[in-house]
Amino acid sequence: MRHNRDEKRFDRRVGHLRCMMANMTNSLFISGRIKTTTAKAKELRSIAEKMITLGKKGDVAAERRAVAFMRDKSVVKKLFKEISPKYKDRNGGYTRILKLGTRPGDSAHMSFIELVEESTAKKPEKKKPASKKTAKPKQAEKAA
Hints:
Blueprint: H1 14-31, E1 33-37, H2 38-57, H3 60-70, H4 73-86, E2 95-102, E3 109-115, H5 139-143
Antiparallel strand pairs: 1-3, 2-3
């Protein structure tokens, strides 16, 4: 029974699950987008966003926590130097899940999970063109 359990196990032991999530997080930060099942993407989203939040802190303790989870120093350096500074003004929502449909072999729901690339700066509002008012002929002039 899974009383009071928050994370999905995907029918794996805890060690295998942690390694799988760490590998998927590394792949996401290296390539920016990965294709996986929707359930794994939803689980990965929370882990990846926590790692980006650690990267935004930028101190040594946060870097050590990220290395302890991801176990790849080059990816952690990329996270702290390149990826996290892009999201300094954003409060969460660093990833996006795009659903693709089902996989032909086993009908598993597939998705892309990717890092959000759009800038957080406010876009300038487009000014509406001034409406041209045309003089309407009066009814009396029409009748004459």
